Amino acid sequence: MQDHPEQGLRKVPKKFNPTPFAYHQEIEVEIDTLTNLGDGLGRVDGWVVMIPFALPGEKVLARVWHNAANFSRADLLRVLRPSPDRIEPRCPLFGECGGCQYQNLAYTAQLEWKTSTIADLLRRLGGIEAPVNPCHGSPREFHYRSKITPHFQFPRSDNFPIGFLAVNQRQKIIDIPACPIATEAINAALPAIRDDARRHRARYKRGATLLLREAAEGVITNPKQTVTERVGPLALQFLAGDFFQNNPFILPEFVDYAIRQAHQPPCRFLVDTYCGSGLFALSAARIFEQVLGIEVNADAVKKAAENARRNSIANCRFVAGSAEEIFAKVTTPAAETAVLIDPPRRGCDTVFLDQLLAYAPRRIVYVSCGPDTQARDLKPLLAAGYQIADVQPFDLFPQTRHIENIVTLARE
């Protein structure tokens, strides 16, 4: 994509700050790098400008729409000098839909930039200088995503858009008839599901979110239905609407890497916090003597225990732990125990980190979908005497800015 679709000129917003650029002023920018949000970043007379879909090494023409206190945001109008890594995006809606950021970037370059993004976040947010392994690529660059949640606003006409938010928009929905990062089965099911929502638009009093999850049972749209996902030798069940990693093609390698990082001498025992329905805990049971899964969600604990029975795993148990007493039921010696943590994107709170440090396991494997909050959380762990043994990014979400990162910490 050489050009970004032109947007019609609009009236200057009341709160627009006219310094240093006028509203919709067109500027030429040399792009230096990518931000962790996937935007191209360049400077004009030292002033930072962020431009979605612009790539490092490019010279672009952009149109400013926002001036913040120390940077500006602009839309890409035209690529004046393209990067050698620029390619034609597969999706015709790339640049309008906000779901993907990198379809215009060759996949090898995507992996290189994700590796450097992790190193930058560790350095900038954690004050950490550590070697970062090359980002582990996905076996599939497209058609990998086993769950999508298209949504729509209150339907005011028969043909209302159903899809995802537009770039830099909080309200505008881009209509998505097909999504090239979703699995083939989801794309085959999507037209009928969209048609059904439009035919029955009278039942919606406001906007809604649709669910399409591919599992062993097919493409499921009911978030309360139990579904099955195979990960290596395991068959795991969970509710279709619950969280579960959405790239099944890379998941066995991802999980295996994390548990093998934890299973280093003298660690014979594993504690899996934030264990959910038991993905890491049950996968680890084959190589650890004992595994304990801890989860504050009682329903998830029940589902994890059912998964253990279903897979005939006897050396793994699950308990519901209160946020204030996460490690109260841990009985294995800390010197021989590894703790795996996989928190939500917001990271760990100080209450959890204080309890983790009080328990003081020999090894910590921190799996994160939010490398920025992970970098923040690593600081108190390093200050308490842990050292980084390994940093490994995984690309569970090709064509997007999102990165999963595994950091291993150890203490003597």
Task: Describe the protein in words.
This protein has 412 residues and is α+β, with helices and mostly antiparallel strands. The chain folds into three domains: 1-86, Beta Barrel (OB fold (Dihydrolipoamide Acetyltransferase, E2P)), CATH 2.40.50; 109-140 and 242-410, Vaccinia Virus protein VP39 (Rossmann fold, 3-Layer(aba) Sandwich), CATH 3.40.50; 147-227, no CATH class. The chain is 22% helix and 28% strand. It contains seven helices and 21 strands. The chain has a seven-stranded mixed beta sheet with strand order 17-16-15-18-19-21-20, sandwiched between helices. Strands 1-2-3-5-4 form a five-stranded mixed beta barrel. Strand 13 (226-231) and strand 14 (234-239) form a beta hairpin.
Brief description of this entry?
This protein has 412 residues and is an alpha+beta fold. The protein has seven helices and 21 strands.
- The whole-number mean of residue pLDDT values reads 95
Radius of gyration (CA) equals 23 Å
Strand fraction band?
25-35%
What is the helical fraction, as a range of percent?
10-25%
Q: Element order, helices and strands?
A: EEEEEHEEEEHEEEEEHEHEHEEHEHEE
CATH class of the largest domain: Alpha Beta
Main structural class: alpha+beta
Overall geometry comes to globular
Examine the secondary-structure arrangement and name the CATH architecture of the largest domain: 3-Layer(aba) Sandwich
Low-confidence stretches: 1-8
Largest sheet: 7 strands, mixed
